[in-house]
């Protein structure tokens, strides 16, 4: 259901074609809820059947296209969902399950794990920070469309709360980078400590 509400949230900025919706989703809510284009179109059709979105045929850029808009019922559903208590999903993280058993692998395999983990979250950190900047400077097209439909007295609040989300994600990514770097440092420390100690088991050394 989250995808449905994410689409409603984007359409709350204003009417748009299916193509525009997919494009804007990828560069806004899609940063937080990754999905495929076919899933977005299928969700849009479902919302239309539910009466939360209405499509009408209009001529845009010289062609007849379907433009989708939020209905009053859709807006009410969106606002109720936003205001509802958060339902946290069960925590699952494959990478951390792998990390839990790194002691069974060689130092080289463990090091490669932490390096990939660090590099992945470094990229994510940069992406979140850049997205926060685009929102803060009011350069994002969906945000610009949203601000046009809202009272100017609300603009600072809108921008501040959205920036807070992306800054928080950048901070979380930075913590993941620090965790991976600490893991690499721990491997170095353990290697030094075991240099004069007993040899590790063959099983651990050969783990891939």
How are the elements arranged and paired?
Layout: H1 2-11, E1 16-17, H2 18-26, H3 37-50, E2 53-60, E3 63-70, H4 72-83, H5 94-100, H6 107-136, H7 141-148, H8 155-194, H9 202-206
Helix pairs in contact: 6-8
Give descriptors for this structure.
single chain; 208 residues; mainly alpha; Arc Repressor Mutant, subunit A; 2 domains; three-stranded antiparallel β-sheet; 9 helices
Quick synopsis:
It is built from nine helices and three strands; from the N terminus they run αβααββαααααα. By secondary structure, the chain is mainly alpha-helical.
Order of helices and strands: HEHHEEHHHHHH
The share of residues in helices is: 55-70%
Within the largest sheet, what's the order of strands? Answer: 1-3-2
Average pLDDT taken over every residue: 90
Our Rg estimate from Cα atoms comes to 23 Å
Tally of extended strands? 3
Report how far the terminal alpha carbons are from each other.
Answer: 39 Å
| Domain tally | 2
Number of helices: 9
For the report, how would you describe the main beta sheet?
3 strands, antiparallel
Shape: elongated
Instruction: List segments where confidence is low: pLDDT < 50 over at least 5 consecutive residues.
Output: none
């Amino acid at each position: 259901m989250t995808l449905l509400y994410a689409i409603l949230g984007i359409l709350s900025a204003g009417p748009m074609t299916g193509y525009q919706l997919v494009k804007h989703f990828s560069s806004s809510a899609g940063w937080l809820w990754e999905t495929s284009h076919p899933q977005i179109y299928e969700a849009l059709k479902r919302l239309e059947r539910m009466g939360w979105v209405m499509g009408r045929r209009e001529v845009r850029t010289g062609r007849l296209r379907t433009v989708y808009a939020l209905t009053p019922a859709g807006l009410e559903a969106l606002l109720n969902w936003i205001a509802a208590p958060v339902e946290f999903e069960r925590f699952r993280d494959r990478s951390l399950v792998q990390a839990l058993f790194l002691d069974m692998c060689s130092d080289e395999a463990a090091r490669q794990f932490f390096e990939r983990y660090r590099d992945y979250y470094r990229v994510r950190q940069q992406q979140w920070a850049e997205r926060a900047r685009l929102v803060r400077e009011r350069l994002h097209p969906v945000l610009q469309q949203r601000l046009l439909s809202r009272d100017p007295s609300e603009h600072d609040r809108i921008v501040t709360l959205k920036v807070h989300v992306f800054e928080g994600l950048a901070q979380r990514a930075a913590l993941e980078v620090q965790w991976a770097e600490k893991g690499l440092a721990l491997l170095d420390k353990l290697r030094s400590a075991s240099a004069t100690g007993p040899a590790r088991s063959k099983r651990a050394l050969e783990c891939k």
